[in-house]
Amino acid sequence: TLTLRTQRHSTTLTKMAGADGDDSLYPIAVLIDELRNEDVQLRLNSIKKLSTIALALGVERTRTELLPFLTDTIYDEDEVLLALAEQLGNFTMLVGGPEYVHCLLPPLESLATVEETVVRDKAVESLRKISQEHSPVDLEVHFEPLVKRLASGDWFTSRTSACGLFSVCYPRVSSTVKAEIRQHFRTLCSDDTPMVRRAAASKLGEFAKVLELDYVKSDIISLFTALASDEQDSVRLLAVEACVSIATLLPQEDLETLVMPTLRQAAEDKSWRVRYMVADKFSELQKAVGPEITKNDLVPAFQNLLKDCEAEVRAAAANKVKEFCENLPEDNREQIIMTHILPCVKELVSDTNQHVKSALASVIMGLSTILGKDNTIEHLLPLFLAQLKDECPEVRLNIISNLDCVNEVIGIRQLSQSLLPAIVELAEDAKWRVRLAIIEYMPLLAGQLGVEFFDEKLNTLCMAWLIDHVYAIREAATCNLMKLVEKFGADWAQNTIVPKVLGMANDPNYLHRMTTLFCINALSDVCGRDITTKQMLPVVLKMSEDQVANVRFNVAKSLQKIGPVLEKITLQNQVKPVLDKLATDKDMDVKYFAHEALSGECLPYEYS
Amino acid sequence: MGRAWVGSETKDWSLPLRTGVLAGQPSPASDGRGHYVTEADVISTVEETESKGESEEAGDTGDSGEYNVYSTFQSHEPDFDYLKSLEIEEKINKIRWLPQQNASRFLLSTNDKTIKLWKVSERDKRPEGYNLKDEEGRIKDISTITSLQVPVLKPTDLMVEVRPRRVFSNGHTYHVNSISINSDGETYLSADDLRINMWHLGITDRSFNIVDIKPVNMEDLTEVITAAEFHPHHCHLFVYSSSKGTLRLCDMRASALCDKHAKLYEEPEDPGSRSFFSEIISSVSDVKFSHSGRYMLTRDYLTAKVWDLHMDKGPVETYQVHEYLRSKLCSLYENDCIFDKFECVWNSSDSVIMTGAYNSFFRMFDRETGRGVTLEAWRESSKPRAVLRTRRVYTGGKRRRGDVGVDSLDFTKKILHMAWHPAENIIAIAATNNLYIFQDRVNPDALAQ
């Protein structure tokens, strides 16, 4: 008999069906009926339990009744179709094993033609999966004809889906069928609609991998060249991606004649989107073509991309500076960087576009490990310092967030003179999101700069954020204090920040008084029982008499929060009386939170 | 060319064999409906799809002579922008069909702010058979259930379903005037008064601003964008027109931001004819690429112009749509008609252009001969299979019978919106609350020649 896991229904159903009738049928009947429920959530639920339904129906009825029904349900919502496409990929055993796996092709074929890309892609993914479960004979009798039907379908949706299926059947069919498959792929590469040509271009690399090397050289290269000079730049840019896989497949001596002309042409394409793609894939291309071609061709190409007239291209190339330099052949890496790359990098530091500058700032620090201490001090440091003074906050932030790379090579002291003004300026930036970003780097900076420097220069900033007029900043500032205590220890906290935090409890502004409570919530755990009991608790208890209700109910919340840190006796003698009093407060919110604290999960028995 | 129905032989334009008027009856209930009929039954936009033969939105009702509406749905609801305290009308400014990708059809519709993607699909089967209830919905006795039943699909009457697929919102601060689908099949542009955005059809939460003509100081504003369209074949080219009568062609290959145009098409102003109204009447209300991609057709208040992409010094052809109104500009300004936005369209072979006028008149021009004809879309004269009358506006000389005097033109009967079937000689003309579909009555003799 069946064991069911239909959580949604099992309880009600057993009650209803318990008297007589077949207990195991009822839940399945519900699942089947809900395949056509008006509520999409219920349909989705049923589709996700399709294996349960199939199991109950048995392999025969699944093949003859369930699958035909599912083949026609392509009217449904995307999320239902997506779930269906996924389920069918794991359905082989439920239709009777590999012998019958071809029964799954019709519903997946109709799913492979819907307009929604994610559904189509999922159907193709499932088709690829079940193709492996076809015997070589079934593959030729059932699967390959499906691929052909899709490839010659009326609508481009079916033809795009076909592109993803060639590579899975090719290795397992006879040489006559192989020739047909190559022909179909060739046809789709010159399809009328750019959508299909794009799909073919994006599967070109994958298809090349399963082809015999001779066909790669004869067929694939000519298709690659054609797609790379397509009239639509949306197609050409996808050929760049294929370039990576094709170059990996070919022997080194063929690259120059078969791939490089096309790659050179792409790097200088009239459309910035194609050049952008080259820049974006530069590291992969570099690895695929090897060190010699990199030295002779890619270095000048990279220089050009760094100087491109379109900012998007420069930004993409700037992003790759570190990776490109890292992967240069070690024997003359330093020389190439110093004479060819660094001059371009220097120009980018004062680029007119802030995205370019900030892309560079996010990787430039990484060059110091590659170039070593002397070069960093002489050539890179001036650039870092210039970027620390950049007008765009994002550039400065990116430099600050990557300080650890430089610290390893030259030590952060070299920078600290310029660092401080940059940090202070960001800390006081008019945009609160910028202030928020710099707060997040504070623990990292504190770790790099050390406790003395921090106490001397940065502590005041951290305390100032606690009284920022934006709540998100005050909240981040409390969290920051906690991380600093984790780094510097409870003793440091007791001497430097705890007194200041507790001092705010007497502030005339109730928002600042509440910040004290929020800080205590965050700090009690890291500061430990001693500091919490002796220094923080008295302040919290005293605040229970605050005239502002918001402060009082936050006292109740804080007491609940710090409870686990305190001793039972303290809870009993000091905390409970205060909470009892708050529980009779005239304000209903205060009452509510006091009761919450009294019945709080952490301390139910002490209080009750 | 030489097809009989162009030029003055337009008597060959007739209502299609089986059809008549679409969306004919004014009904108060259809206020603000999508598709064709919008804004209290004034049709605000028309677009024909690349269907096979028949017009897409109309179904055949046999001999009754009238089209039934294929499908009607509410595309946009009236909305309110709380930040700016502005009402957003539900009126649809444009609809555009997507290239067909499967048995369903897809269209984009836009009001002033929000663009939506719709799926129109047909369904002729419905599932039947429940386990736990009968077809009337009565719950069955549980103890009678001894076997499982899988639903079966049975044929039913054809149903047309329209479903919203995506909503592209928050992309525009000003009023959207155009949407255009790119030939790459995955992106489209939307233009408002000052900006043009590019969207991916599958991505709703992000769009790229490609043109921004908003000056730093709004006091310096001298022109606005009036229409924009992608090139039919080159996915990197698009054109936009301005209220100053210029066209700017932009190449997206050159740069991610297209604030700098690749080419500017402008007609040198004739200093002699300058008047108070010069700037208003030179504002371009519509721009359309020819199917070949070589020409652009624009419409301003008094003329339709054809521009060659290779020639930026002026239009290669200029057609007077209703020159006789030049002396009436003052009163047309007073009743706001001078701001009417007429659309213009190409026929499938780019040999004929068509655009709208007043008094339910619309005009067609044969580009080869340069001859124009005035036709009338009017219910009384539009019996099924009836051949359309040519009309003439009397502007002097010998007055013929049936001529209409300029002073008796009805300026409330405007023909602003129209569409020409992409492959066949079927046109759709929107005249306030009526949509007329006319078909070229193929003249066997003409074909034989």
UniProtKB/TrEMBL annotation, chain A:
HEAT repeat start and end residues: 27-65, 104-142, 181-219, 220-258, 259-297, 298-335, 341-379, 380-418, 419-457, 536-574
Gene Ontology cellular component list: cytosol; nucleus; protein phosphatase type 2A complex
UniProt xrefs under Pfam families: HEAT (PF02985), PPP2R1A-like_HEAT (PF22646), VPS15-like_hel (PF22956)
Cell inner membrane found in the keyword field: no
Phosphatase 2A Regulatory Subunit A helical domain: residues covered: 104-285
Gene Ontology molecular-function annotations: protein phosphatase regulator activity
Keywords linked to the UniProt accession: Repeat
Domain Phosphatase PP2A regulatory subunit A/Splicing factor 3B subunit 1-like HEAT repeat positions: 291-372
InterPro entries: 2AA_helical (IPR055231), ARM-like (IPR011989), ARM-type_fold (IPR016024), HEAT (IPR000357), HEAT_type_2 (IPR021133), PP2A/SF3B1-like_HEAT (IPR054573), PP2A_Regulatory_Subunit_A (IPR051023)
Family classification: Belongs to the phosphatase 2A regulatory subunit A family.
PANTHER family: PROTEIN PHOSPHATASE 2 (FORMERLY 2A), REGULATORY SUBUNIT A, BETA ISOFORM-RELATED (PTHR10648:SF4), SERINE/THREONINE-PROTEIN PHOSPHATASE PP2A 65 KDA REGULATORY SUBUNIT (PTHR10648)
The protein, known as: Protein phosphatase 2, regulatory subunit A, beta a
Organism name: Neogobius melanostomus
Taxonomic classification: Eukaryota, Metazoa, Chordata, Craniata, Vertebrata
UniProtKB/TrEMBL annotation, chain B:
Family per similarity comment: Belongs to the phosphatase 2A regulatory subunit B family.
Pfam families found in the cross-reference section: WD40
Spans annotated as Disordered: 46-66
Keywords for this protein: Repeat, WD repeat
UniProt protein name: Serine/threonine-protein phosphatase 2A 55 kDa regulatory subunit B
The keyword ATP-binding belongs to this UniProt entry's keyword annotation: no
GO molecular function, one term: protein phosphatase regulator activity
Ranges that cross the membrane: none
Organism ancestry: Eukaryota, Metazoa, Chordata, Craniata, Vertebrata
